[in-house]
Amino acid sequence: MKAILCTRYDSFDGLRIKEVKKPSIKENELLIRIMASTVASGDSVVRRASNPFVKLVFGLSKPRNPILGTDLAGIVEAVGGKVATFKVGDRVVASTGMKFGGHAEYIALDQTVAIAKIPEEQAFKDAVTLPFGGNAGLHYLNKMKKGSGKKLLIYGASGAVGSSTVQLAKIYGFHVTAVCSARNMDLVRSLGADIVRDYTSADWKEELGCFDHIFDAVGKTDKKQWKNHLNTNGTFYTIAKGFVKESAPNLDLLLSLAQKKQLKPVIDKVYSMDQIVDAYKLVESGRKRGNVVLDFQ
Asked: Quick one: average pLDDT of 199-224?
């Protein structure tokens, strides 16, 4: 099978498409033919390895698992003898977390990881956008005090995490102020934000007011920078801190919301496997909107 390998850190030349052995499965595993994946911020963090801690965790000279990609959507091609929940032909979406493996034509996954069935009418490229931003949005929103009219500010509202969190927050009843660049304001309004602010404007914090919760969806600020904009007992959260655990129930919920048109997939661009360097460059430009998708069909 073909796979995209990260053969060394911090070099686009280190991204190679190679033929590798197709995985075999154990009795409790599924073999999935991957139709779509994403290039997410987690992939970029590992590829660049600008933080020395990355090399300590994932490998000193290159990733121990050189096939990156945390999310995938595809078709179950084979199942082990102890797999009861899935069958051959099922359309599924899955999140592997920091175990990666999604940037390939096939993957073997244990049936207990975050896997969910995709409705027939939902495209693979749409379904694969849900796990990363959706899981993160649910994780942080579930930490917050909910209630009609609770005021939430989302900083970095147009990225994969931010665009999902804006939509989920509105479903939960929050009054949402979303912060993004001017070019993305119309997009974020279309996702349901009540107020949208352009962070590139010199006076964007004037008359901003105070909030019950502030969520930095891109991990570029800290609580001190928001001290004048939090209500008494207000809380600050950042994607840069905390561990987001993937789960099948979360995926089921996200897919259900998408099927009901309450959660819209946000895709900046779709690339082929051969365009992997361009995909990473867009992610690392800091200017992507929503998700960057890889189409393996």
From this structure: 93
Q: Would you tell me the crossing angle of helices 130-141 and 160-171 to the nearest 10 degrees? A: 50
The residues pairing with 117 across neighbouring beta strands, listed in sequence order, are 92
**Three-state SS for 73?**
strand
Q: How many residues does the chain have?
A: 297
Contact 291, 271 (CB under 8 A): no
Q: Please say if the pLDDT value at position 206 is more than 90.
A: no
Long-range contacts: 59-66, Cβ < 8 Å, 24+? 61/8, 61/9, 62/6, 62/7, 62/8, 62/9, 62/14, 63/6, 63/9, 63/100, 65/99, 65/100, 65/101, 66/5, 66/6, 66/7
Using a 10 angstrom Cβ sphere, with 0-12 exposed, 13-18 middle and 19 or more buried, the burial of residue 93 is: buried
Q: Is 140 left (phi over 0), alpha (psi -120 to 50) or beta?
A: alpha
Query: Rounded to an integer, what distance in angstroms lies between the CA atom of residue 151 and that of residue 233?
Result: 13
Domains of the chain: 2-129+265-295 (3.90.180.10), 133-238 (3.40.50.720)
- Count CA within 13 A, CB hemisphere, residue 275: 16
Tokens of 122: 């939902």
pLDDT tens profile 18-43:
999 999 999 999 999 999 999 999 99
> Is 87:79 a contact under the CB 8 Å cutoff?
yes
